[in-house]
Amino acid sequence: MKRTIIDASQLELNDNVVAIKRVSKTVKGGRTMRFSALVVVGDGNGHVGAGLGKAGEVPEAIRKGKEAAMKNLVKVPVDESQSIPHDMLVGFGSASVLMKRAPEGTGIIAGGPARAVLELAGIKNVRAKSLGSNNKTNVVLAVIKGLTQLKTPEEYARLRGKSVDEILG
Q: Which of 78, 109, 155, 160 has its CA 20 to 30 A from that of 147?
């Protein structure tokens, strides 16, 4: 998975808390409770990232998750109809996500975790279906993995040494 480093300080990022879980660790004196927050950040213009933060308090966990997400920003190609360039099925762990192109006016048809990522990435028309596990962390990471693997027709044409018209038929 090829990732390019993106400077988050130059972007206007919005964040979305996808999940907050109470987690515990058993130690000699009993259980210590902490909170885990899954946060997605994006600028709505082709940049998106996800991060996981853990802390004793919820706001601190969200802040840490947001910082982690800003370190993991990826660039996403978006076509002229504000959709993804091609359909794909991608998995992460036991979660799989099927993403399909959609024409203008369709909107985002996707479940909660996938919807959060696609909205913040700036994709307006797409259909997505979560298959396999519905673990929110793995679904979010599967969508981000899929978005990093997307290529525009121009990139495919350059890789194959052909023109865009030959690729698109």
A: 160
* pLDDT at position 4: 60
Q: Is the dihedral of CA 135, 114, 72, 57 positive or negative?
A: negative
Taking alpha carbons only, the member of 168, 153, 166 closest to residue 77 is 153
Tell me how far apart the alpha carbons of residues 104 and 88 are, in angstroms, rounded to a whole number: 19
Q: What is the pTM of this model?
A: 0.89
DSSP-derived secondary structure letter, 105 = T
Query: Measured at the alpha carbon of residue 111, what is the angle toward residues 110 and 112, in degrees to the nearest 5?
Result: 125
Distance of CA 74 to the CA centre of its chain: 9
> pLDDT digits over 62-80, tens only?
999 999 999 999 999 988 8
